[in-house]
């Protein structure tokens, strides 16, 4: 995935588990965090990204290269994003949303957060808890009170034995 | 005690609840209000995340309850933000209320006041009941200066509502759907939005509100983006775009089966693109601008159509390429009756350089009369006297005008110009610049009419000074090798019959 341009426009990124990645500067500056470093002249050597592990960074760089190769065509970019995220499990998406947040990449952030939200759409509380492994720490009385407060939101939800 | 039953493939570690709150807010941002609010039941840590996300997103489509209950739910949520001193950046309410009562109207007004104080960025209020009826929009909406995105659907906008309008100095996106507005109001709105980028208009019509696609779109100033749905332009009869800066390239992929009138003026969005218009029933195409656009038309089936081209004549030391570009444009509209006007000129070189350069056009074009386009009327007011001869040479190198029109306002300048023109056309002195088109010019006559062009009378050069202000003089030219035309037709192009026909069509389309 390294951009073998041989010109000084290639940056080296280092993940928090010490993996090194080469990436074209033009693709890397999709990250505002990296762009700021480049503009401040701090991008000469290796850019350490302390909050991103190698597996996630590899994935983010694939995305950077893929999306920056598409000319200004919003529809094509959107279909690339959809395809890119289609096979990612929640674990990966959660890592990516954190990375996108840290790297300040709004387009990736929007796409990943929307993808996670999509999973919750019109789903019952019980289904969402099981899907994401969320532990219910309400007492039955507390839970009933919260449900009562927002009673109107429990119409039209997919039926669930837990709900 | 754990109540959760673990399913195979589900996550054993609760990774989502560990995400920082601002990321959870970004995730909830994408959900409908009910989906977002329901997350409060997931666990204690989720209790209040929904009411810290920066947006409210209500729709009564799935709401089980009456209008008042719905409005009350919206109101409670908004008050909750107010109490926490949190801002709502985006407010989105879609409903289908047949009729508002006074209490509901004042509730909506109160929301807008609260949102204005929160510096709301995006405001979307849609009321699209199944039975079409439109309610008056609370005029307070037009006081929210912070707006970046305004989306209104299913309302009436009266003149009074607009009077409260502030300058929307941040507004980049405006969407109006099934909004009934009086004439002139749209222009007023647009004039208050200097940064507008996206204009999304659906079913905007001042007369018929129920049509699925608009019949008339008039936009002046701003950037436009149209819904590209295949049917969106189905009913469009009249499209007028003035001062549109965003690229109009996407119009090339649209079909305009009903379009009769197309007027494009001062649209920077035409620069650098090749516009292709698929409008088989067009009867009028008007262009006004200071550059020559690249526009072509799909086969036009209407029996007769008119092109009215108004240009700034570029007189520079590269004037010849300007004329060649103009030739391309005229060729692409050669199936229409063309009226060509040089309304203004820009002079960017010394006159000798310009003259020399224009004379190159005939060489480049080889004086090929078969490649020339018939122009029904050519008009060239205000051009510098010393360049008339060269400009005529340039024009005749790329087209064959049947009529040359000029204005008489009683000034000496006009008289001199007409004299000069008449001499060039009648004396036909072959100078060292060989005027190849002289050979084809068989006959020249002069006629004059009053400003309304009701009646054209033959006249002569010497009679001209007797006429009062505001007369039009027309030199009628007859050149060989014109395309065939019916001898029963008036010899010159009759502008009155044109305007009559346009008026008739306008009435029809109304």
TrEMBL record, chain A:
One of its GO terms (molecular function) is cullin family protein binding. Gene3D superfamilies: Potassium Channel Kv1.1, Chain A (3.30.710.10). One of its GO terms (cellular component) is cytoplasm. It holds the Pfam family Skp1_POZ. Keywords: Ubl conjugation pathway. GO terms for biological process: jasmonic acid mediated signaling pathway; protein ubiquitination; SCF-dependent proteasomal ubiquitin-dependent protein catabolic process. InterPro entries: SKP1 (IPR016897), SKP1-like (IPR001232), SKP1-like_dim_sf (IPR036296), SKP1/BTB/POZ_sf (IPR011333), Skp1_comp_dimer (IPR016072), Skp1_comp_POZ (IPR016073). It comes from the Eukaryota. Residues 11-65 form the SKP1 component POZ domain. Belongs to the SKP1 family. Part of a SCF (SKP1-cullin-F-box) protein ligase complex. This is SKP1-like protein.
Automatic annotation (TrEMBL), chain B:
It holds the Pfam family LRR_At5g56370. InterPro entries: F-box-like_dom_sf, F-box_AtFBL13-like, F-box_dom, LRR_dom_sf, LRR_FXL15/At3g58940/PEG3-like. Coiled coil: none annotated. Residues 13-61 form the F-box domain. Signal peptide: none annotated. PANTHER family: F-BOX PROTEIN-LIKE, OS02G0160200 PROTEIN. This is F-box domain-containing protein. It comes from Erythranthe guttata. The lineage of its organism: Eukaryota, Viridiplantae, Streptophyta, Embryophyta, Tracheophyta.
């Amino acid at each position: 995935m390294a951009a073998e341009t041989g010109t000084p426009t290639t940056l080296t990124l280092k993940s928090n588990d010490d993996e090194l990645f080469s990436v074209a500067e033009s693709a890397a500056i999709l990250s505002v965090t990296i762009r700021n470093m480049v503009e401040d002249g701090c991008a000469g050597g290796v850019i350490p990204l302390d909050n991103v592990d190698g597996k996630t960074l590899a994935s983010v760089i694939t995305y950077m290269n893929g999306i920056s190769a598409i000319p200004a065509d919003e529809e094509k970019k959107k279909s690339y994003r959809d395809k890119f995220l289609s096979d990612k499990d929640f674990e990966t998406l959660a890592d990516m949303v954190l990375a996108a947040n840290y790297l300040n990449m709004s387009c990736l952030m929007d796409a990943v957060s929307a993808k996670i939200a999509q999973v919750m759409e019109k789903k019952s509380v019980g289904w969402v808890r099981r899907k994401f492994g969320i532990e219910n720490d309400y007492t039955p009385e507390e839970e009933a009170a919260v449900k009562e407060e927002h009673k109107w939101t429990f119409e039209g939800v997919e039926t669930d034995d837990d709900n | 005690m754990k109540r959760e039953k673990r399913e195979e493939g589900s996550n054993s570690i609760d990774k989502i609840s560990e995400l920082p709150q601002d990321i959870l807010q970004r995730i909830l941002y994408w959900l409908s209000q009910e989906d977002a609010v329901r997350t409060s039941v997931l666990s204690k840590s989720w209790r209040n995340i929904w009411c810290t996300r920066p947006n409210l997103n209500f729709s009564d489509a799935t709401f089980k309850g009456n209008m008042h209950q719905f409005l009350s739910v919206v109101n409670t949520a908004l008050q909750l933000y107010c109490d926490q001193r949190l801002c709502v950046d985006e407010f989105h309410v879609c409903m289908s209320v047949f009729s508002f009562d006074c209490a509901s109207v004042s509730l909506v007004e109160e929301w807008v006041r609260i949102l204005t104080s929160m510096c709301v960025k995006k405001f979307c209020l849609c009321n699209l009941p199944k039975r079409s009826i439109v309610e008056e929009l609370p005029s307070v909406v037009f006081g929210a200066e912070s707006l970046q995105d305004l989306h209104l659907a299913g309302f009436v906008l009266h003149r009074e509502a607009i009077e409260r309008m502030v300058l929307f100095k941040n507004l980049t996106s405006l969407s109006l759907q099934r909004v009934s507005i009086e004439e002139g109001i749209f222009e007023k709105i647009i004039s208050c939005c200097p940064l507008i980028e996206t204009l999304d208009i659906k079913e905007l019509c001042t007369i018929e509100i129920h049509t699925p696609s608009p019949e008339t779109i008039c936009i002046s100033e701003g950037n436009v983006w149209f819904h590209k749905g295949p049917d969106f332009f189905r009913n469009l009869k009249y499209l007028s775009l003035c001062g549109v800066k965003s690229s109009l390239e996407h119009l090339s992929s649209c079909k305009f089966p009903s379009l009769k009138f197309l007027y494009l003026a001062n649209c920077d969005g035409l620069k650098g693109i090749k516009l292709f218009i698929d409008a088989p029933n067009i009867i009028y195409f008007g262009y006004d601008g200071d550059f020559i656009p690249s526009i072509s038309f799909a086969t036009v089936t209407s029996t007769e159509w008119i092109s009215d081209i108004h240009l700034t004549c570029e007189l520079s030391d590269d004037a010849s390429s300007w004329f060649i570009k103009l030739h391309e444009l005229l060729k692409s509209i050669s199936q229409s009756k063309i009226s060509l006007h040089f309304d203004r000129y820009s002079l960017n070189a010394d006159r000798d350089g310009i003259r020399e350069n224009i004379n190159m056009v005939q060489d480049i074009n080889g004086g090929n009369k078969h490649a020339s386009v018939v122009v029904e009327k050519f008009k060239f007011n205000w051009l510098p006297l010393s360049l008339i001869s060269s400009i005529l040479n340039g024009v005749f190198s790329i087209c064959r005008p049947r009529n040359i029109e000029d204005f008489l306002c009683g000034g000496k300048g006009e008289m001199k110009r007409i004299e000069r023109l008449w001499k060039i056309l009648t004396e036909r002195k072959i100078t060292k610049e060989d005027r190849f088109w002289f050979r084809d010019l068989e006959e020249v006559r002069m006629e004059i009419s009053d400003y309304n062009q009701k009646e054209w009378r033959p006249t002569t050069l010497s009679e001209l000074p007797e006429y009062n202000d505001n007369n039009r003089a027309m030199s009628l030219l007859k050149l060989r090798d014109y395309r065939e035309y019916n001898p029963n037709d008036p010899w010159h192009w009759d502008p009155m019959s044109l305007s009559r026909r346009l008026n008739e069509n306008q009435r029809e389309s109304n």
